[in-house]
Design goal:
Belongs to the UPF0047 family. The protein is an alpha+beta fold. It has a single domain, classed as Jelly Rolls, CATH 2.60.120. It is built from three helices and eight strands. The strands form two sheets. Strands 1-8-3-5-6 form a five-stranded antiparallel beta sheet, covered by helices on one side. A hairpin with a 2-residue loop joins strand 5 and strand 6. The protein is elongated and about 50 Å long. The termini are close together.
Amino acid sequence: MKTFQKTIRLKPYPRGFHLITDWIEKEFPELKEIQIGILHVFIQHTSAGLTINENADPSVRKDFETFINDLIPENYSRFIHNYEGPDDMPAHIKSSLFGNSVQIPISNGKMNLGTWQGLYLCEFRDNGGSRKLVLTAIGN
């Protein structure tokens, strides 16, 4: 059994949904040492999230952004937590809905995602800054 763990820092991304699959594979070459296992990806933030979805058509990511902003608007009059601006409380709720971690099978040293799947960073703040991910790979 092999176990690897690494914390990586992503560059700052603008608000939206961003594919980070290739970046993780580049920054975590230890994946190549695992033939069968699991990769756990955890984001250490409360105003961003992670999800797996369509990796080919960028309009899917744009539609995610449009829908989630319509669902949880910044101008919701009943929010009282607004110390860091109008996008802060909506970002916390969005983060809870999408979640802060994903698990991906590892097969033959690579993430075993479906043909049309990719890992998204869901950035919910206008200026969220650099985000940290904890990557943990376990397997044989």
